[in-house]
Design goal:
This protein starts with a helix and ends with a helix. By secondary structure, it is of the alpha/beta class. Helix 1 packs antiparallel against helix 6, helix 1 packs antiparallel against helix 7 and helix 2 crosses helix 3. It folds into two domains: 62 residues, no CATH class; 190 residues, Pyruvate Kinase, Chain: A, domain 1 (3-Layer(aba) Sandwich), CATH 3.40.1380. Helix 2 links the parallel strand 1 and strand 2. It has seven helices and five strands, in the order H-E-H-E-H-E-H-E-E-H-H-H. It is a peripheral membrane protein. Pfam families: ATP-synt (PF00231). It is found in: Mitochondrion inner membrane. Keywords: ATP synthesis, CF(1), Hydrogen ion transport, Ion transport, Membrane, Mitochondrion, Mitochondrion inner membrane, Transport.
């Protein structure tokens, strides 16, 4: 049987955990509401770029054997399987790559680096930290896009993996292509637009990648906050309500009171027995 001190410490720990998870749920709810409001205008950036690429028939090389994989996560956890789903899809993709394919990884956020860096340390090209601690802005996406564009690694295929927000309890992990400047130049219908020169293509490539990353960061932020809110709500219920079919705090309180009563009864019996022996 557990001692009174152990039961008291356990009960206090569970109660404190419940207070923390409830507070985190409230904070996540406020951040989620803001992230959802900011997501609606941000979607025009990503959707506009993808629509333009589709109409211009920008495509990646089919015969290339160099691949770039970009994983979009954040630095923070306690949000369910938001980050692990990204790593799971990438780990499932790698064995299916054609033989002889060379791939490199770019991890945006410390969680993706922690998940993929242990398995593919040699393929890690670069990673970015301090993601998710503050509200993502277009300047953050531009800085990341600039680093990717200035890479020495020339890729034939590139994909960006991120979570698309659906609802408070739902999100989808998806991948969108990242086109290089060479892919844009070789597009069949891109020359239909006026004033297309080398400088315009370079500027548009930078803006398109920044817009796509900004869109992915906003989608990921909304998905993360909604998942964290749901996870903290479930944790609060697990601490305060059910554990193995019974209420955890009530069960611990009842066990503590019974143990305390048993200790008091035992001490009284010892005192009475000693007095009777005299």
């Amino acid at each position: 049987m557990a001692t009174l001190k152990a039961l008291s410490m356990r009960l206090k720990a569970v109660t404190n955990i419940q207070k923390i998870t409830k507070s985190m749920k409230m904070v996540s709810a406020a951040k989620y509401a803001k992230a959802e409001r900011e997501l609606r205008p941000a979607r025009s950036y990503g959707m506009g770029v993808q629509t333009f690429f589709d109409r211009a028939e920008v495509k990646q090389k089919e015969e290339g054997n160099k691949r770039l994989i970009v994983a979009m996560t954040s630095d923070r956890g306690l949000c369910g399987a938001v980050h692990t789903n990204i790593g799971r899809q990438i780990k499932a993709l790698v064995p299916e790559l054609p033989a002889g394919t060379e791939f490199k990884l770019i991890c945006i956020g410390d969680k993706s680096r922690a998940i993929l860096g242990r398995i593919y340390p040699a393929e890690m090209l670069m990673h970015f930290v301090d993601i998710g601690k503050k509200v993502p802005v277009f300047g953050d996406a531009s800085a990341i896009a600039n680093e990717i564009i200035n890479l020495d690694y020339e890729f034939d295929h590139a994909e960006l993996y991120f979570n698309i927000f659906k609802s408070v309890i739902s999100y989808n992990t998806t991948a969108v292509p990242i086109f290089s400047r060479k892919n844009i130049e070789e597009a069949e219908k891109f020359n239909l637009y006026d004033s297309i020169d080398e400088n315009v293509i370079q500027c548009y490539n930078e803006f398109a990648l920044s817009s796509l990353l900004f869109f992915a960061m906003k989608e990921s932020a909304a998905s993360e906050q909604s998942a964290r809110m749901t996870a903290m709500d479930a944790a609060s219920k697990n601490a305060g309500e059910f554990c193995c079919g019974e209420k955890m705090i009530e069960k611990l309180t009842l066990t503590y009171n019974r143990t305390r009563q048993a200790v008091i009864t035992k001490e009284l019996i010892e005192i009475i027995s000693g007095a009777a022996a005299l």
